[in-house]
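#struct-pred
JK: can someone run the complex with S-adenosylmethionine? inputs below
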Amino acid sequence: MIDINEIGATAFVIASIRAMEKEQPDPLFNDPYAEWFSNERALGAARQLNEAFPPSTTMVRFRTRYFNRFIERGIAAGARQVVLMGGGFDMRGHLYGNPDVAFFEVDQKAVLEFKRFMLGRHGIEQLPSVLGNYLEVDVATGLDELGFDPAAPTLIVWEGNTMYLPTHLIMPFLNRLTGAMHTFRIAFDYFAVDLENREFETDEDQRRLEGVERAMGASFPTGFADLTVFEEETPLRVAEDGSFAGLAEEFGQSDMVADYPEDWRETLKLYRYCVLETR
Ligand SMILES: C[S@@+](CC[C@H](N)C(=O)[O-])C[C@H]1O[C@@H](n2cnc3c(N)ncnc32)[C@H](O)[C@@H]1O
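RT: done, structure tokens with the ligand placed:
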């Protein structure tokens, strides 16, 4: 039995939400592999997410579509490599990889060993992967050993990760990446709240976010109330910033979000995406 810790286990919950997409009247994406990584426990956590805050799983659907679009647009603009950082059971490497675009994965050893095992059962190979805690291991050297070209334009998908990380390790990690790769864009989701000090604007926001933490079975030590910290503490530039709910119209879901109660829409302003890029 592979021993996956509580942060690794969150990858099953996200895969389970992706696995349910085909049952939606208007699917936002197609991930035919997701059901391989779904299980009863993770489906229970997904239900608990919606009990804690009803739009939660919808926002995961929006985020999946957003990161797909990040890859599609990035490749169209010339990216030649994609790194799925903390990629969990993300199968975009198999969905979007082609002879001109190389995908690499980075995640904890136990998560990627489980993924390799499941893919192997279906006769599919795991992509070149760096196994380990990316805050501790030398990610750049690990990628280089797999054939990564530090000079090629690169996209980094850092989806569903920042909230789980110790705040003080994030900027050093980004600075190590910046020192090791010439040109990249890194996209991530984040909570726009100072979670270290639990500085919520309303009790409702706090209750909802803490309910989401409980459902995910892991705590969220990190949020960013102000993105200027990235420009002050790293050489990167903020290229995009917005709320996932704000993508509703583009994703053909504006009626649904417009029907949400006003206070839900206020809380949703806290769940956002950001793209940082090298200057
Ligand atoms: C919520 S899941 C998201 C997985 C995937 N990105 C997705 O959205 O489907 C978080 C993933 O990040 C990985 N992760 C978080 N912190 C990590 C770290 N410091 N080193 C390696 N992997 C990490 C976990 O193991 C887990 O697979």
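RT: quick notes.
The longest strand covers residues 184-191.
DSSP finds eleven helices and seven strands in the chain.
JK: thanks, will look after standup
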